[in-house]
Design a protein that fits this description.
Blueprint: E1 4-6, E2 13-18, H1 24-31, E3 40-44, H2 50-74, H3 95-111, E4 118-125, E5 131-138, H4 140-161, H5 170-177, H6 184-198, H7 201-222, H8 233-239, H9 247-250, H10 253-258, H11 265-284, H12 301-310, H13 320-328, H14 340-353, H15 357-361, E6 368-369, E7 378-381, E8 393-396, H16 402-413, H17 436-451, H18 462-477, H19 485-492, H20 499-504, H21 511-525, H22 528-534
Antiparallel strand pairs: 1-2, 2-3, 4-5, 6-7, 7-8
Helix pairs in contact: 1-2, 3-4, 3-5, 3-8, 6-8, 7-8, 7-11, 11-12, 13-22, 14-18, 18-21
């Protein structure tokens, strides 16, 4: 963007270096001009041949810049670029470094104003040897980009002249620096920040699992083009250009998940969904244009999941014999651990409330409620622990578990923390930081010891919740009207299934109805031996 020209009456070509507008008084001071202002520096290129002059232009401009910088620094002022020096090494063997350097260069360019503030003359020669000039207007950003291109061309020329390798990732650097490619890394960082503000920790864990699998797939696919194995798959993914991810490559991801990764069809759907959401976000931000390459990627997976599900035994509630065996067993027998009391307390609590495992493990002082005029204490499931919007609810506690709750509540209150956990043994864990994470593993060990490994895949802690639903129905059949399906749905945190319920009926029933349902379920729904083991 810097012009070469012939001075009036001269035969040799000259080059003009334009001083940035905001530094012209500094440069004028450095050169000691009478006006204290200097807009450009002109130097001869020492040739009458235009082609030779164009070849000499980059080095001449660099020499002028060095001269200006030296004069500025001699009077204690910063050089034109503020002291910033590019550190690009074109012998890179690391794609991530090339991308990082390209992003740094891109930031330097985009920081400059794009407002056109200078006019320049471009001279071109025609076939008959005459010279024509064209006036163009440029902005600081144009000139900074031009400077970078000149610097790259000069350094590449020097490397080639010296017989040194340019490096395999120079093209990536240039494409990123000049905005021709968009690396995935910064885009993923932006998207993840938005996701952190809008979705649960569990959903974010699903996002990470999806991109971990996607990174492994791309590394396996791209390894054939790399001289050495790709060991850091996420680093490789973050360096990939969004524009270079071909639909043909993306289309093979679901097959890879089903085949090489060995995932079930249901899990494959959960891995593809975050990728589709990320691409939708990129389209909304006008980073890329549509259509979304992941549209239709999960077609047919529901049918496959249904077939796979039909081939496996259904998870069920505990039988009466299994319940008795679990409730009467000693979780501490033959073990050295701290989970015995938690298992003893959480089993009856789950059986008599129908609450989910993590909902119970996450109970705190402020989640034990006593409503005005109510006979029974209750527990509250708040939004932070609820699986869905419908799961936010309050459930009465049967008198059989009240002594245990009061004991744990007193211990939690004694800590002085208003939100102290009732089950401090249940430390947060797993990708989503759930308090039920480690407890689930310990209960599985206990359940296998009591019921045997043959119970795997048939019953889990969630089976207590299934028992609650079963005993609610039995009590309803036995004549307890409060145990009807609509009440059971409310207590278990399930969404109503009809428009009539969701639109025309009250959102919450009176607390007395819930109390009567809990009492009636235990009185008329529980098997006598199970009730006796709880008493």
């Amino acid at each position: 963007m810097h012009s070469i020209f012939r001075r009036t009456g001269a035969q040799t070509w000259s080059v003009r270096f334009h001083v940035p507008r905001d530094r012209r008084f500094d440069v004028g001071k450095a050169y000691g001009t009478k006006s204290g202002h200097k807009a450009d520096v002109v130097r001869t290129l020492g040739t009458t041949d235009r082609k030779a002059a164009m070849g000499r232009r980059p080095k001449a401009l660099e020499a002028i810049r060095a001269e200006i910088d030296a004069k500025l620094q001699a009077i204690g002022l910063a050089p034109l670029d503020g002291g910033w020096k590019p550190d690009w090494a074109f012998a890179w063997d690391d794609e991530e470094k090339a991308v990082a350097e390209g992003l740094a260069a891109r930031r330097e360019i985009t920081k400059a104003s794009d407002r056109e503030d200078e006019a320049e003359e471009l001279y071109t020669a025609t076939a008959d040897g005459s010279i024509h000039s064209t006036t163009i207007r440029t902005s600081p950003r144009d000139r900074k980009e031009s400077q970078l291109r000149d610097l790259i061309a000069e350094q590449l020329g020097e490397l080639r002249d010296a017989g040194k390798p340019v490096g395999p990732h120079y093209d990536r650097f240039a494409a990123v620096a000049f905005g021709e490619e968009t690396p995935l890394g910064p885009l993923l960082d932006r998207w993840e920040q938005e996701r952190d503000r809008s979705v649960s920790k569990a959903s974010r864990a699903m996002d990470k699992a999806a991109f971990n699998h996607f990174a492994s797939y791309l590394a396996e696919h791209d390894s054939q083009w790399h001289a050495s194995p790709i060991t850091d798959v996420m680093k490789h993914l973050r360096a990939k250009a969004l524009e270079r991810l071909e639909p043909r490559v993306l289309g093979g991801f679901t097959e890879w998940l089903l085949g090489s990764a060995g995932l079930t069809a249901k899990t494959v759907g959960s891995r593809v969904s975050p990728l589709k959401m990320f691409w939708d976000w990129c389209i909304r931000k006008h980073i890329i244009s549509g259509p979304n390459p992941w549209d239709g990627a999960t077609r047919g997976l529901k049918q496959q999941a249904a077939r796979q599900g039909n081939s496996r035994p259904k998870r069920r509630e505990f039988s009466e014999g299994e319940l008795l065996a679990l409730l009467q067993a000693d979780p501490d027998a033959g073990r050295r651990w701290t989970w015995g009391q938690a298992i003893r307390d959480l089993m009856p609590l789950a059986l008599l409330t129908g609450a989910r495992e993590n909902e119970l493990c996450s109970l705190t002082v402020d989640k034990v409620v006593q409503l005005p005029g109510a006979d029974l204490l209750g527990i509250a499931v708040l939004e932070e622990d609820a699986k869905t919007d419908s799961s936010v609810r309050q459930v009465p506690l049967h008198p059989l578990v009240r002594p245990m709750i009061e004991r744990r509540l007193a211990a939690a209150i004694a800590t002085g923390e208003p939100d102290a956990p009732l089950f401090p043994e249940c430390k947060p864990g797993g990708p989503a930081g759930k308090r039920g994470y480690y407890f689930s593993k310990r209960f599985t060990e206990f359940r296998r010891d009591v019921l045997g490994a043959a119970s795997d895949g048939l019953v889990t802690f969630h089976s207590f919740r299934k028992c609650f639903g079963t005993f609610m129905r039995r009590a309803a059949v036995a004549g307890v009207s409060e145990c009807q399906l609509s009440v059971a749905q409310k207590l278990m945190g399930h969404k109503p299934q009809t428009i009539t319920e969701t639109t025309y009926m009250e959102a919450e029933m009176p607390w007395r109805v819930y109390e009567a349902a809990i009492l009636g379920m235990v009185d008329k729904g529980l098997p006598e031996k199970v009730l006796a083991s709880l008493s």
